[in-house]
């Protein structure tokens, strides 16, 4: 069996943004919550101010940089050693300056116990997710309960399972996602589509 995965991401709606909102993320608080999932990546003037997800290879995953005062400076989710697909930037007082992309950062599809398992990973730092569900081209709907990822820091996992699939079947799963920015109560909605070409290897 082989799976070929294609993804399409689209923002459906973005609420009014307040870039002056303050939402300080302290290094000490970050390490208390996520210290077991990250490693210190660099030491500046005797302080460790950069951290990366341990993940499976310490390359793919989140990368955090902190100011000397201990406040978060930036976050990026890297897909290789040079390319990131999502990022956030803050000033030294904790005001969010910039956001690149959307917080859907990783997709996984695999067979598990005879079912197709599709996982969507969402960056969750200072975000509250709600009303998450998925629909498919097979007229299915899945209400989704997010769970914390056990490997990567500050990621929530949305997962669906599909059964009784046929050889050569084209599958499209469309995730409907809504979240609130805890810093300024801004609500955002976006969609993420995962398309699968599912077929058996008859060799």
Instruction: Please count the helical segments.
Output: 1
Spatial strand arrangement across the major sheet:
2-3-4-5-6-7
Contiguous runs where pLDDT drops below 50 for at least 5 residues:
1-20
What is the CATH first-level class name of the largest domain?
Mainly Beta
User: Quaternary state, please?
Assistant: single chain
Determine the mean pLDDT.
Answer: 86
Q: In the residues, how many domains can be counted?
A: 2
Largest sheet: 6 strands, antiparallel
Strand segment count: 15
Radius of gyration: 18 Å
CATH fold assignment of the largest domain: Immunoglobulin-like
Structural class, from helix and strand content?
A: mainly beta
CATH architecture of the largest domain: Sandwich
Euclidean distance between termini CA atoms? 10 Å
What portion of residues is helical? under 10%
What fraction of residues sit in β-strands?
Answer: over 45%
Order of helices and strands: EHEEEEEEEEEEEEEE
Instruction: Report the principal-axis shape.
Output: elongated
Protein described:
With 203 residues, this protein is mainly beta. The protein folds into 2 domains: 2-18 and 102-199, Immunoglobulin-like (Sandwich); 27-100, no CATH class. The protein is 4% helix and 59% strand. It is built from 1 helix and 15 strands; from the N terminus they run βαββββββββββββββ. It has one helix at 27-34; strands at 2-14, 38-44, 47-53, 61-66, 72-78, 84-90, 96-100, 104-112, 115-123, 127-136, 141-143, 147-148, 155-162, 169-181, 187-199. The strands form 3 sheets. Strands 2-3-4-5-6-7 form a 6-stranded antiparallel sheet, with helices on one face. A 5-stranded antiparallel sheet has the order 1-15-14-10-11, with no helix packed on it. Strands 8-9-13-12 form a 4-stranded antiparallel sheet, with no helix packed on it. Strand 5 and strand 6 form a beta hairpin. The protein is elongated. The N and C termini lie close together (10 Å). Mean pLDDT is 86; it is low at 1-20.
